[in-house]
Structures are given as C-alpha cells and as structure tokens.
Amino acid sequence: MMQLPAGHWCLQSAVTMTDMIKQLADDFRIECFEEQNDSTTLLDDYDRDIWQANQVLLLTAKKNYRLYSGEETIEYAAGTTQMRFWWDFPDTPIQHKLRKLIDLRALLPIAELGLASQQFVLRNSDAKIVVRGELSALRSDVHDAVAQHDEKPRVSTFVSLQGLRGYEKEFQQALDNLQALIDKPLPSLSLKSRIQCHGFDVQLSSKVFGIEAHEPVEKALRQMSLSMLNKARENEAGVIDDIDTEFLHQYRVSLRKTRSLLNLMKKALPEELHLRLKEQLGKIASATNNLRDLDVFLLEKSHYQSMLPPAFAKGVEQLFSVIAQQREKARREVVKTFQSVGYEQSFAEVLQTLQQSPLYATELAARPVKTVASKKILGRFEKIRRLGILIDADTPAEQVHDLRIECKKLRYMMEFFAELYADKAIKPLIKSLKKLQTILGDFNDYEVQQAFLAGYEKANRSKPALSAACNGLIALLYQQQMQARAQVMDAFAQFNLPDNVEAFEQLFTKSRPEQEPS
Amino acid sequence: MKIIACYSIKGGVGKTATAVNTAFMAAQSGMRTLLVDLDPQGASSFYFRVKPLKKQGGKRLIDSSQNMLKQIRASDYENLDIIPAHMSFRNFDALLSQLKKSNKRLGKTFEKLSDEYDLIILDCPPTISYLSEAVFTAADLIFVPVIPTTLSERTYEQLLDFFRKNDFPRKSIIPFFTMVQMQKNLHKNTIDGMRQRYARFLKATIPFSADVENMGEYRSPVGAFARHRPANKAYEQLWREMRKKISKI
Lengths: 518, 249
Fold this sequence. Notes:
Chain A is an alpha+beta fold. In chain A, 55% of the residues lie in helices and 17% in strands. In chain A, strands 1, 2, 3, 4, 5, 6, 7, 8, 10 and 11 form a ten-stranded antiparallel beta sheet that branches. In chain A, strands 9-12 form a two-stranded antiparallel sheet. In chain A, helix 6 packs antiparallel against helix 8 (245-264). The model of chain A is unreliable at 143-153 and 511-518 (pLDDT under 50). By secondary structure, chain B is an alpha/beta fold. Chain B has one domain (2-247): Rossmann fold (3-Layer(aba) Sandwich), CATH 3.40.50.300. In chain B, strands 3-4-2-5-1-6-7-8 form an eight-stranded mixed beta sheet, sandwiched between helices. In chain B, a hairpin with a 5-residue loop joins strand 3 (73-74) and strand 4 (80-83). In chain B, helix 1 (15-28) crosses helix 13 and helix 6 crosses helix 7. Chain B is globular. Chain B starts with a strand and ends with a helix. Chain A binds chain B through residues 1-2, 121, 126-129, 164-167, and chain B through 48-51, 69, 71-74, 76, 81, 115-116, 219.
C-alpha cells in the first residue's frame, strides 16, 4: 500500500479561511464546504481518567455525547437527561468504553469548548481535486482544575492536509504556500492534541511523596502523612456535593493509609504523640464508616438482583429501598460532621502536629527511611509466610483473617515506599501480593456482607419478602465465601514459590547495607 | 479482486459512459475500484478530470507493475482511482504482438494490485486487436453495450464469432442495450428480437439521454450531478445486475 502524504498543523494565530485562500490562490482553486459549529462541554471525572486514557468526551449543545478516541469519534445521541455515570448511558459502545474509563466516578463539566471545522478541497486548472483539507478552530472557557496559560489566545486554529494518490507534488506545493501561517506540527488531529496545543493540560496530582532513601524516618513519616491527609481533605467537597461514591472512598483510603503508616512506624514518634494522633484520626475516620458500608452495598445492587430468582425481586427491591433511605440519612450526618466546627478543629490540630519539625526523640526517628522500610517489609513478608504455611483446609476463619490483615499491612508498606525502589523490581512483587489479597479479600467481603444482611433480616422480620431476599442472598454469599476459602491455600502457595521469595529477599535485603549512612 | 471490461467493436455506443458511471457506483458501494482508461482518446480520464499521460511509453505500463502503481491517480471520489489514458497506448498492439504469451501479460500485471482493489474496470478502445485479445483474457466479465439497431446487432454477432473462432469463453460476454429510444419502432423490435435470440442480455436498458451527454460538460459521472434523473436510475439498475454477476465470479 502506498503511504500518502498527510499532516496536521497548529496555525500561528486566529487564521481564517480568507487568509488561507490568500496563500493558496496562486496555485489552486480552493473550494470550501459548509462550516460546522459546535458548542460543547468537555466532560471527565475527578481523576481525569478519560483524558489520561487519551480520549475526550464532549457533550454538545444538542445534548449529544461524543467520545473521541484518537482521531475517531464514537457518537451517541442522548436524551434530555444528564448522564452522570457510565450506567446512565444505554448499552452502546460509548457505555462500554466509559465503564472501563471512569468505573464508579461521575462525569463533571471541565471546560466549555467551541469547535468549528470547515473542510475544503484544492483543485488544479482542470478543476480536478488534488489536495483535501480541513481548517478547524477551538475556543475555550475554563470551568476549573484544567490549567490554562494566560498568554495563549482564546482561539486556536489548525489545518490538516491530505494528499491524493498521483498528486503528491500538489500536496507539497500547498504545504509550501501555507508555511507562512503554520506555527508547529501537531502529532495528530486527535481532539486531545488540539486541546493540548490550545494550551490546556490536566494537572495530575503526583503519585510519589518525594522522599529520599537517606531521609530520617520521622521526617519522611510527617511528610507522607501530611500529603495523604491533604489528599483526603480534597475529597470532602465531593462527598458534600454527593458527586460520586469514590470521593468518600478515596477520603477513607487516604485516612486509613495515614493511620496505617503512623502505626507501622510508630516507634519513630514519641509514644504520647503517636497515641494522640491515633485517637484523633480514628475518630475522624469512624464518622464515615456507616455511610461507606451502605455505599458498598448499594453499588452491588444489580449484582444482588441477578443472584436471586425473579420471585425474590420484590424483596430485593424493598431491601434496597430501605438501604437507600438509610444511606441518605447517613450521608446527611457525614455532611453535618464535615461542616462542623469540631471536625474542622480536630483535623486542623492533626495537620498542625504533623507540620512541626521532627523531634528525633526515639532511636528509630533519625535512621534512614529506606533501611527501615526494607527491614520492616521483609519482616512482614516473613511473618506472612509463617502464618500462611500453617493454613490448611480446616484452619478456622480467624487465622485466615489474620493472614489477610498482615497482607494488607505489607501491601501498604510496599506502596508507601515504592518510590525508593526500582519500578521493575518492586512492581512484580506488589502484583504477586495483589493476587493473594484478592482471594483473601473476597473471603472477607462475603463474610462482611452476610453479617450486614443478617442485621437487616433481623430488623425486618415483619416484611416477609425482604426477609426471604436477605436469607436467599446470605445463602448464596456463604457459598461464594466457601469457594474463595477453597482457593486460599493455592493462592498462598503461588505467593510462596521459591522465585517470589527470593525476589522479595533480594530486593529488601540487598538494598540495606549500601544505604547505611557513613 | 475482480476484473471487468467495457468493450465494443463499434465506437460511440456508450462504452465509456458505462465504464465511468459503473466505476463511480462501485466505488460508492464501498468497493475499492480502479478504472483503467485503455482508450487513447482518453474519454474516461477526461470525465474524471485526470490529465492523460504523456511521457512514458505503453511498454512500461505493461512491463512493470511498479511503474503502473505510479500512474494511478485518485479521482475526486472516495474508493475510486484511475489509470489515465496514454497517448501511446495505440502502440500497445505493436508491443503486445511482439511479446510472448502477450495475452496473459495484462492480467499478470493487474494481479499485483489485488491487495489494493476489489474491482478493476477496463475501458477499452473500439477495435479488435492484440490489446482487446489481452483484455478478453484478463477480464472475468466483458460488458458489451449494444445500440438496438440492425448495424449494432451485426457487430455483436461479429464479436461472438470472434470469440468462437479464437476459443475465448463466450460465457464472459454480457450484453446490454444502450442509447435506447423506445419511441422508435426499430429500437423496440430489435430489443425484442435480440432478447429472444440471446438470453444473456441484462434487463437494464440505458436510455438515450441528454444527462449522459452532459457528462462531458460537468466532467463527472451522471450520479454526481443528476442523481435522481432517469439515466442515472438506469445505470443504477445496470450496476445492480452487474454486481450480481461480478459476485458470482
């Protein structure tokens, strides 16, 4: 196949078709087609997952949703209702794509974008088409969070040219003629690259803490805790506005990780200080426990519905309507807490405490963080192996839970300090741990859900349909829990394979001596 | 990839109009189509506003597929490319007569384009020559426009005779009526008679039409400027029948 000449360029300033014609008129007859104009809203979730996947979702003034993947568009004409989640969309390619892209997150308006495009052809003296092209423009008004460089013009224009077979010279001629208007080449005509050329880009929060291997433990501990707590606080607004359930989830993850970090490294802080932080953070986190439990259950609605035969549908519906009411109540309580003076004060206190200079009051506090992290990770890893080897088919559930909790601690440790190790070395180890955690997590989740349902069943004995639905679900969840239990031994054996053990030992032992300060 | 030819011993029977309009319709239907203008008069090329080639000789077209690729020009329509006519295509005959197995050369050259095109349409000059023999060998089907007059009927019979004598497969000949004026008794009677004698005639008939003549003025296929006119409807019907035949190859 022949490669035809083609290209996309960002033009110097607000170039119009008239400017183009002026440049091309000596050599070509230019024929323009109708200009397409669209006022659109750029949509994405809080984490900008669509943008990060190199795609762009637009909502047009006529309420059409358009997803641009690369240079292609998947178009979907929606009704009048605002679609917030992937499951609000009908069963179409756009839904399937969004499901993968945004998962549980809601779509938010990011920016207003005006899109204009006009196709044209260049003809030679025989009136034969020799080059095809498109002139397009982008106008913008920013909503939030998308960075904009002030010196950029409010309108950017782009041209793309497509050569035709047998008319390669004419393509080159057209490009030469337009050179005076061209600013720089565009990597592609994808909407994302045009938006980037327009001066937009999404600022992503950094995934690393910026700690150094030689840094004293206490300094790193304070820095990391502050970073995670600030991240937690960024999610409060999303919880208050009830945008999606991920805000609360991320809020809790950040808090839990902070508490875990402080706990795992507690000997780097004076005992009194550690206990105070532990108590304050525990109190902050517990205020959201109930709401999260209810969220998790509601998110599983369609799953639960599919588990039971149609005869139970009414009971399931009743159950979920009870839970939805309780969830709304719980949400209002959380909002009240978040907006209360007491909450604000205690959070501020925690942050203040952590912002103070390191005290170096303990032996561990001043030691280099990587040495300590390696030692603790390896210690945790060995503990997991000791616990895991003891588990057989008859081991009581409590011991399986102990193993799960140790795995969770190890996972946190590895993720906290991942930036101190080579990606290539630590990522496969985290992955091997994740596999084991999935089985252990399932085992636990099914048990928690059974207990959750049992509570509802007990409180709603007067509603036979609801009670039957609960009991039906409990029975199924128990089966699933047993299935997960049956996989535990095998999952651990995989994790405990000699190659994996050796890789753990190598990464977290070898790195120790060379990092000791002189 | 299928190869079809538009051919008639007689000139001025609507052969080029057929090649141009059906090539356009094939391309519109999504088939990647190459129209090869073998007629040195270059009417097909003219209709698509593609300049005839001047410099390189016919020998190079036949000899080198690489060179043939270089002659291909995009038309103004999606999926439709053209190899424009060449002033020296008239030398083809002399050339082909000197080549061994000359009848198979043309087909071999086109085989190399099989990844790029679904359909090749050959617009042939109105002669019986080495070139047309090469076309008869290369083409899977040969569509033959016939004006329903006594003279045209005789020409059609000559073509059948030629195929019979030279052992070309007569099955590949598919005739149809063009420039039909049903108000003329001669046309009507000839059509009826020929349809009785030759069952292979397609049902579609192309009317005598100013719209077809206007192709020269617009330098476009009829479908591009008179889409809803009877002439274009007739070509659409013709193309539907042709496509059925092509899909059975």
